[in-house]
Amino acid sequence: MNPLKIGSHVGMKGKEMFLGSVKEALSYDANTFMLYTGAPQNTKRKELSQLHIPEAHALMKEKDIHSFVVHAPYIINLANTVKPEIFRLAVEFLSLEIERTAAMGSRILILHPGSHVGEGAQKGTSKIIEGLNEILTADTPCLLALETMAGKGSEIGHSFEELAAIYDGVTHSEKLRVCFDTCHVNDAGYDIVNDFDGVIDNFQHLIGKDQISVFHINDSKNARGARKDRHANIGHGTIGLNALHAIVHHPDFTDVPKILETPYIVSPENPEKQVAPYREEIALLRSAFPVSVQS
Predict the structure, then answer these.
(1) Which residues lie closer than 8 Å to 174 by C-beta, 6 or more apart?
(2) Do residues 253 and 205 lie in contact, with contact meaning Cβ atoms separated by under 8 Å?
(3) Which helix (H) or strand (E) holds 202?
(4) Nearest-CA neighbor of 2 among 23, 35, 31?
(5) What is the Rg, in whole angstroms, of the alpha carbon atoms belonging to the chain?
(6) Which of 81, 162, 189, 262 could form a disulfide with 225 if both were Cys (CB 3.0 to 4.6 A apart)?
(7) Helix 196-206 vs helix 241-248: angle between axes, to the nearest 10 degrees?
(8) DSSP three-state, residue 198
């Protein structure tokens, strides 16, 4: 049996860049990870030659990490029909991010589908399809994983039907995949706590569960259907440890990487410092029998 593929979001900064990302993942005892190629709020990116890609790959090989995923920046909004310059930036920068993702050695780039900024989901979805049809070709070097969204504001992609509509309109839909975020899906109204298999059956009918290429494993601070998107630490939210543990170990998704994006926590040694919870949460989710966690 293949080992559980589990990791977290890691940084990429300082002198070591990508090499530092791999070291951070290893510090959490992770065997996969997710990163942004630069700050998610802007388009500033270092040259690939400055990222220490060969050194990072060598360390990954040494430590038996076989894959990682990349997340596109938040500023990309293919659904914007109001400002042509925003749409054009999204198309051009997403094209560059695809090339950077492939050059770094990942085959998965996660993308928030976009926000229709008040113009309605139908118009926004049509614009997303237009943009993806301009970007994606038979030779696109990585897969684009549309993230399931919570439904706050004018987000598109909070329902499986909305994601399916994008698939239906994209010519090279073989280049599309889905990133299934547990917090977002819960906040969008799907009952993954009591009926995860039923939720997946629905997804299978509309898109196909083989299209899920990444899971974001996050608890939620919100009740199901709240459409607020506020992540909680594992076992400290409304989804709970048992449900998340079952999802992580679901036999249908053994080979799909699971990525934690849970909040930093107060350091036990220094109450004024925030620290990553990922090593402890990864160990908790890896355990054969989860223990109770007090919320």
Answers:
(1) none
(2) no
(3) helix 196-206
(4) 31
(5) 18
(6) 189
(7) 50
(8) helix
Q: Mind listing the pLDDT tens digit of every residue in the chain (295 residues)?
A: 568 999 999 999 999 999 999 999 999 999 999 999 998 888 899 999 999 999 999 999 999 999 999 999 999 999 999 999 999 999 999 999 999 999 999 999 999 999 999 999 999 999 999 999 999 999 999 999 999 999 999 999 999 999 999 999 999 999 999 999 999 999 999 999 999 999 999 999 999 999 999 999 999 999 999 999 999 999 999 999 999 999 999 999 999 999 999 999 999 889 999 999 999 999 999 998 665 544 3
CA 12, 14, 20 angle in degrees (round to 5)?
Answer: 50
Reduced to 3 states, what is the DSSP secondary structure of residue 176? strand
Find the angle CA(227)-CA(191)-CA(154) to the nearest 5 degrees.
Answer: 20
Q: What is the rounded CA–CA span in Å between residue 156 and residue 113?
A: 6
Helix (H, G, I), strand (E, B) or coil at 85: helix
Q: Identify the DSSP state of 282.
A: H
Q: Give the sign of the dihedral formed by CA 241, CA 244, CA 250, CA 256.
A: negative
174 neighbors 210 (Cβ within 8 angstroms): no
Rounded Cα distance between 38 and 268, Å, is 30
What are φ and ψ of residue 54, in 5° steps?
-60, -40
- Quickly count: other Cβ atoms within 10 Å of residue 114's Cβ: 27
Tokens of 205: 């009918």
Residue of 174, 119, 124, 175 lying closest to 149 (CA atoms): 124
pLDDT at residue 294, as a whole number: 42
Burial of 288 per CB tally in 10 Å (0-12, 13-18, 19+): exposed
Q: Which residues contact 270 (CB under 8 A, 6 or more apart)?
A: none
